[in-house]
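so i finally got all the pieces together for this one. its two components total, 790 residues if u count the protein bits. some of the lines might not be protein, just check the labels. i wanna see the whole assembly predicted at once instead of chain by chain like last time, that was a mess tbh
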Amino acid sequence: MKSPKTGSSWGWLFLIWPLLAWSGESTLRGTGDLGVIIERGSGRILIVNTSSNSIVQRVDGLGDLSHASVVFSRDQRYAYVFGRDGGLSKVDILQGTLEKHIKQSGNSIGGAISQDGRLIAVANYEPGGLKVFSADTLEQVADIPAVYDGDKLSKVVGIADLPGSRFIYSLFDADQIWIADIHDAKTPQVEKFVGVGRAPYDGLVTPDGRYYLAGLFGEDGIALLDTWQPRRGVRRILANYGQGEQKLPVYKMPHLRGWAVAGQRIYLPAVGRHEVLVAEMPSAKEVARIAVRGQPVFVVARPDGRQVWVNFAFPDNGFVQVIDTLTNQIIQTLEPGKAILHLEFTPRGEAVWVSARDDNKVVIYDTANFAKLAELPAENPSGIFFTARAHRIGF
Amino acid sequence: MKSPKTGSSWGWLFLIWPLLAWSGESTLRGTGDLGVIIERGSGRILIVNTSSNSIVQRVDGLGDLSHASVVFSRDQRYAYVFGRDGGLSKVDILQGTLEKHIKQSGNSIGGAISQDGRLIAVANYEPGGLKVFSADTLEQVADIPAVYDGDKLSKVVGIADLPGSRFIYSLFDADQIWIADIHDAKTPQVEKFVGVGRAPYDGLVTPDGRYYLAGLFGEDGIALLDTWQPRRGVRRILANYGQGEQKLPVYKMPHLRGWAVAGQRIYLPAVGRHEVLVAEMPSAKEVARIAVRGQPVFVVARPDGRQVWVNFAFPDNGFVQVIDTLTNQIIQTLEPGKAILHLEFTPRGEAVWVSARDDNKVVIYDTANFAKLAELPAENPSGIFFTARAHRIGF
């Protein structure tokens, strides 16, 4: 396109317009293959592309992102980032802009997005409770303090979405599980399950949205609620799950959110042991133990369930191991870099992205042959989140 | 773009530019909540938005779309539409443009996209075989005629993707199942399973990508292949599945692609009977039969598996019934309109879209309370496909 050399004073505008138009065009793209990587130390996220294995852009100013997590809008255009400092950010991942940032509490541990995509819920430590926001504006629409024993407030952990504008979460200090129904935000309905076990510290919902499992810090075993039949109440499963009779030094509590559900089996990290446990669902009967390199932290299934990938606590946090779920054998041991914090599979599982915090890089592997596909520079990367999560239950 | 004639005439360009820029801006949006509806008679598709329950635009010129199906690129920007007349179209659903249209055979029955999104495979009746195209350019990269008995060519049906650039499909005339590995397009590797049963007419892969099931037209039962253990070969399951001893008039062969997998159970249409069968996987042992309104065609699970929705062959094709999978009871009977052809759930299942061909409309329901959310005008609508399919295995 030629620029005019003479004539009216419109000329400079004409020069500018193509740039403006281009800036729009440059972001005209699908959002199904995008994702977000947390740069833990710098309050920054990377927007990445899983088709080209590349970084698209960086977005700054999100606050304290240690232990941050992310959910996506149902159109997959916006990432909601939950910071440890109570910050809640809405990022436009197409334009690479921080749309809005609020400080909604003093300390928080993650959040969830409702089934219809209209509500964002945040689990708060300080003040203990659930806050719910409009996904559109980030205006607060509900506040549900986690009150117990009269006037005490409990830390809230292990939040996940359930069908129908509902959220399920655990009260660490109160030994309770709550289901909040925000269908009418002005009068939220809360169903409470008490005495679920000592100090639930994390929780997850199975991929079908049916079972909620809460790990217990204060005793062995797992609290299980069948949300299709809540009146049956919470029952204890895997009674020996935890540190067991002989207390073991635990370097890092495993993330339940990282548990793997492959077919009818659930793969979970043994607390304090160099083992991955295998249990049948829904009975949760233990069927196998697999010896692994170190204390497992994340135990994640490839989307087709054929492989389970495991990372470890210090001092084995430079390793990643791969279990073949058909044989329950370890078929690969990788050393992607120093301090492996997180793993995320591409939506259909052909590749996996691994963050190596102390090597300032993210490493991408082909899951079929374990070939290294790419390394991307990132400053102390931690969590990796792809937009396909928008379409999943329990994230 | 026209070139300017005189210096002073820049004004009109300035007026035009905002429109050009806006036209870019108008399509700057996420693609996670988009979808495509086939307008069966008119060679046209509707691009729709599942957040606003609305039609975004129409795209014309796709040829014969009776029995058409759709897959999506991994970035969810492009829809690949497989026409009955052998047409293969690539549609940019952000811009609403027909990017490319080729006639790749005389008669085809559907296609699939590879795990990495690079290959499009089409199952052809005439000439019988598999053709594989670059997803980017639609250039043909492989041609695998379905040769049997020397020089005969079989119709190919029931195609699905498997991990690792592989496609699985059935040869209707040859009683075979083939797995084609297109990792190296110049020398595709084909694994053949012969004598799988008389006349496989459709097939599906379970959501984990592990089991391939082919319905048999020529005899009772289902052919099952465990693709994780292919050397174990194809075995026959549900031996009584089909028309049974007393042959029944079948008004429309049920679509296997519409089978529902809910938890460890599979819900499938009984051929020729007013029943939905329930079988446990992976044993495929029949555990229940549910009496329904008519001969079921599609039996589809809500993404969380709690509900299974069923439509029917003539003369009951104005009804839709909903089964609660916890109790296996019918909890709702709806009459959305005349000639219900297809159902598609939103990715997390809060709504379902239903096409009523002879009422020229698509009806949208809330799956929690069965309230009608919207009706959209569409000319003889058939298949409905949402972009979340891009992230799934076996579609």
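The two ends of chain A are 47 Å apart (CA to CA).
The mean pLDDT of chain A is 90.
anyway lmk what u think
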